[in-house]
Specification:
With 246 residues, the protein is α+β, with helices and mostly antiparallel strands. It folds into two domains: 56 residues; 169 residues, Superoxide dismutase, copper/zinc binding domain (Immunoglobulin-like), CATH 2.60.40.200. Helices cover 34% and strands 26% of the residues. It has four helices and ten strands. Strands 1, 2, 3, 4, 6, 7, 8, 9 and 10 form a nine-stranded antiparallel β-sheet that branches. Helix 1 runs antiparallel to helix 2. The longest helix has 29 residues. It starts with a helix and ends with a helix. The protein binds copper (II) ion and zinc ion. Copper (II) ion binds next to strand 4 and strand 8. The site of copper (II) ion has 7 residues, from strand 4 and strand 8. It catalyses: 2 superoxide + 2 H(+) = H2O2 + O2. GO terms for molecular function: copper ion binding; superoxide dismutase activity. Belongs to the Cu-Zn superoxide dismutase family.
């Protein structure tokens, strides 16, 4: 595998050398594009091979990521201050992504309202959630077909608490969401059915309440959350049984 990678890199380096001497002689936009394309291809191969090698050396090592949600620094005083945690897990680079969403701070009167959550392009919170850019859209498609279009989440008791087993985003490969941001919106995602240009860009989901940057982590936070999830489910079942038999 390593030999193949080295071969690819040498091949690319050789072509780059020929190309760069041509560029010095007579730069053309076509040539620049070819160089750019080749660079992108080599980067893709590099990323894929290194991630595969990592997975092969630790066959049971799933990929994990964490995102600690904080209220946007530019939030006005009337908006709720949402905090919490989004955890991601992917059993292998090609496997589907799963996630736990655990958020609190929504106003109680908003129970059963729906809030949109997306992955945005930049992991830049210097201007609060406003500097996270548009939806992460590596393939230039319309909303709601972006990899981080996670949809709407129902608020219960001022809280969003959900496990999702199959999300379209990935923690591996050239379109990994690591280093990008998760944004929680004040409104509901119209899922592209709003009949206006913004609907197929961002779902008209309203102001950005809270956000975080997706970073790598070990298995521990996920294991803890999974345990808590089971316990909460059991408590809920027990209290329902008690109500039913009372
Ligand atoms: Cu968004
Ligand atoms: Zn989108």
């Amino acid at each position: 595998m390593l030999a193949l990678l080295c071969g690819c890199l040498l091949l690319a380096a050789g072509s780059m050398h020929t190309l760069s001497s041509l560029v010095l002689a007579e730069p053309s936009p076509d040539l620049m594009k070819q160089i750019g394309d080749m660079y992108a291809k080599v980067t893709d191969i590099w990323q894929e091979l290194t991630q595969r090698r990592e997975a092969a050396s630790q066959p049971n090592a799933a990929l994990h990521a964490v995102c600690r949600v904080q209220p946007s620094a530019t939030l006005d005083a009337k908006q709720p201050r949402v905090t919490g945690l989004v955890l991601f897990r992917q059993s292998a680079p090609e496997a589907r992504l799963e996630a736990f969403f655990d958020l609190e701070g929504f106003p109680e009167e908003s129970n059963n309202s729906k809030r949109a959550i997306h992955v945005h392009q930049f992991g830049d919170l210097t201007q609060g959630c406003d500097s996270t850019g548009p939806h992460y859209n590596p393939l230039s498609v319309l909303h709601p077909h972006h990899p981080g279009d996670f949809g709407n989440f129902v608020v219960r008791d001022g809280r969003v608490w959900k496990h999702q087993a199959s999300l379209p985003a990935s923690l591996a490969g050239p379109h990994s969401i690591l280093g990008r941001s998760v944004v929680v919106h004040a409104g509901e995602d119209d899922l592209g059915r709003g009949n206006n240009p913004a609907s197929v860009q961002n779902g008209n989901a309203g102001p950005r309440l809270a956000c975080c940057v997706v970073g790598t982590t070990g298995a521990e936070p996920w294991t803890r959350q999974a345990r808590e999830h089971m316990e909460r489910k059991k408590r809920r079942r027990d209290s329902e049984c008690k109500t039913a038999t009372a």
